[in-house]
Design brief:
The protein is an alpha/beta fold and 267 residues long. It contains 9 helices and 10 strands. The strands form 2 sheets. A 6-stranded mixed sheet has the order 6-7-8-3-9-10, sandwiched between helices. Bound molecules: adenosine-5'-diphosphate (ADP) and magnesium ion. The site of magnesium ion has 3 residues, from helix 2.
Length: 267
């Protein structure tokens, strides 16, 4: 079964189009900030419904790449999302950051409802949907807690529920759990993959952790600094669901080694 078969009638494949299944298609994409080259000549394709890691050291252009895809800053080159050239922000593409951006005077539920508030009146159905997303991210029972009453991990869960509430089908996550301790991060990463599968989204996930990228992703965009280059795209063929024991296998450590080499070679 191909990816588009699962997509149902609302995403018809375009006959004769090689990129019919592409969610993000970039060709010679670049970005400069004055004399700083943040991204240079990036060419890649991300299929619909994939979980893709964007991996690289600090300053190599990972956040910039996500902002370009989100349409928050103009780009050079050709960049399409779901077959449409990126020309600005759009409702089906959503971005989430490393640090929670919740409103402290609103409860978790009220924060998750924000995208709806901004669009207009909140209906009972919106409320129900927000409660469902809070439950999906594991926050059942915390709907009426305020951000200060929630741990960092729970605040990021709330941010994720709010992102889902926007209806975005392309999730751009910029080191979403990067500020959390390793144990919490590992657990949330696994939950993230489950949520990604449940809501049938395409997810781009920024990390600077090689093992994490190989364990979670369908493919890895490996980026290197000076200037921001896409060193390569590494496919991660392991079946899902993936158990932690996968990390002990030679197949796994081989890919980790390949990625490390790809990063090291250009440093
Ligand atoms: N708004 C901006 N103005 C000027 N330079 C920027 C801006 N955003 C990013 N940069 C530069 O672009 C490069 C890539 O940054 P960034 O995308 O944040 O990297 P990463 O997320 O991988 O750490 C860095 O050299 C950074 O200083
Ligand atoms: Mg960044």
């Amino acid at each position: 079964m191909s990816i588009d078969d699962r997509a149902g009638p609302e995403v018809p494949p375009t006959p004769g189009d090689d990129h019919a299944e592409a969610c993000v298609a970039a060709r010679n994409v670049g970005k400069r900030f004055g004399s700083v080259v943040a991204i240079e000549n990036a060419t890649f394709t991300i299929p619909n419904r994939h979980f893709t890691a964007v991996l690289g050291p600090s300053g190599c252009g990972k956040s910039t790449l996500l902002r370009l895809i989100a349409g928050l800053v103009p780009h050079e080159g050709e960049l399409d999302v779901k077959g449409q050239p990126v020309s600005g922000p759009r409702p089906d593409v959503g971005l989430m950051f490393q640090h929670p951006t919740l409103l402290p005077w609103r409860s978790a539920l009220e924060n998750v409802l924000l995208p709806t508030v901004i669009r207009g009146r909140v209906t009972d159905r919106d409320r129900e949907q927000a409660m469902q997303y809070l439950s999906l991210v594991g926050l059942e029972g915390f709907e009426f807690s305020y951000p200060r009453q929630l741990s960092g991990g729970m605040q990021q869960r709330t941010s994720l529920a709010r992102l889902l509430m926007t209806g975005a089908q392309v999730l751009l996550l910029d080191e979403p759990f990067g500020a959390l301790d390793e144990f919490t991060r590992e657990r949330l990463n696994l939950e993230l993959v489950r949520i990604h599968e449940e809501i049938e989204a395409t997810t781009l996930f920024v990390t600077h952790n090689i093992t994490e990228a190989v364990f979670l992703a369908d493919e890895i965009l490996v980026m290197t600094p000076r200037p921001g280059r896409l060193a390569g795209v590494v496919q991660v063929p392991f079946e899902r669901p993936r158990g932690i024991e996968l990390q002990r296998t030679t197949a796994f450590t081989d890919i980790v080694f390949d990625v490390r080499e790809m990063l090291g070679a250009a440093l």
